[in-house]
Amino acid sequence: MMVVMKPELAFGWIMPEIVITLSAVFILLLSAFRRKNDIGRLAGGLSLIGAGLALFLTCRLWNSDIDIFNGLYTIDNFGIFFKALALVISLLVTLLSLRYVEREEMIKGEYYALMLFGILGMMIMVSSNHFVTIFIGLEVMSIAIYVLCGLLIGNPRSAEASLKYFLLGAFATAFLLYGIALIYGTTGILDVREIARYVTSGNFLITPAFMAGMALLIVGFGFKTASVPFHMWTPDVYEGAPTSITAYMATGVKAAAFGAFLRVFYTALYPFLTEWSGLLWIIAVLTMTLGNITALMQNDIKRMLAYSSIAHAGYILIAFAVGDRVFSASILFYLLVYSFMNIGAFAVVILLGRKEAPNTGIESYAGLATRHPMIALAMSVFLLSLAGVPPLAGFMGKFYVLSDAIKAGYYGLAVIGVLNSVVAAYYYLRVIMYMYFKEPEGEIGRLDLSPAYAVVIGISIWALFHMGIFPRSFLLIARESVNIFM
Q1: How many domains does the chain have?
Q2: Which of 229, 376, 412, 428 lies at a CB distance of 3.0 to 4.6 Å from 387, suitable for a disulfide?
Q3: Helices vs strands, H then E, count in the chain
């Protein structure tokens, strides 16, 4: 690993973060000095340019292995993978937002600036081997999203979602910070790689305080990944938040949280695999089972997708609980696949909604295939991928996760995962049944299928088929990303 000691030389390695920061600040300044009605498309365009340039600069860093700012920040393939994923999510959600923020009459400049600040927090989180920087990234991301959840002016559910996420998020952050404090108190180190070296040196004696610190870290990261029993906020927040922000949270926030979670536990705490893998085994089973069973009872699509998001966190935790660094690539592949199928599903939810009628009830989808056959077909693709039906990428994501569990000897966990997939198929197929075999109940009206919506839906469908039929190249990228753990 190369270490850059001079700060002036280090800034070249964080150009993606600098571009995102400058874009967000410029949009804020622009919104302060221009009329509110004129800012929407301009701010959205600037956000797309900033995120696109940052994505290009991030990809150019591939195969770098650099420590900067005295070890506070790391440029490696693992961080680059998650930063690129966060930026792709940002681009897709921004495209969804161009028409949506106008329809919902949201504060446009601040909306796009906060989205960029949220992405900046995600990028910092996943590129750090130091607890201080991880915490800073987490807070930058979280504070932006607390505000974004409440931007539906005049909507009490949006305000409730923002307040609920803020209060419970602050509570979970306190657990995470206390866990970091306990680990620092017992080791005297905040760098996750140095902690790994210290605890395996033979001079470290595991203490109850250290074990409590590990448990509190699981609580903090469990909240951000919406894992049971730290998931209580998810359905209400996802339902009340603007739908574009729900897509942003369900994909970007979850991916960044799992990225930081993976880096900490597969580096600093990997020597204690036997202590934490059993706990994650239980959490994985509870998360899958409770998420799927509760989703069965939902008649609101946003709430159903919220509980589905909880269940998918459980599938990811299967590979996490296995605890084999070789198999951790399946986590990255699953998160990549999950992001496209979830954003695609939420794109259809946005497309069918209107300001005065969100149309998120399952009855709004009745007869959709006769009125808008292409939209029904697109939604079917996303739901079938979420259910894990071949040849879509959702099947390959679950296949890799479950096969890793079998290879590691976790047969019971794999069987529970398969059974949960069968249960999940019911509520996904139920929506498809409504679209194709139910008579319409009321009018959705003419759909405003803007080019931006078509691009997001088209890219998502292409990605799901491509990664489902030709997964090898994407899995190789994921494996190169996790080589830092070897």
Answers
A1: 1
A2: 428
A3: 21, 3
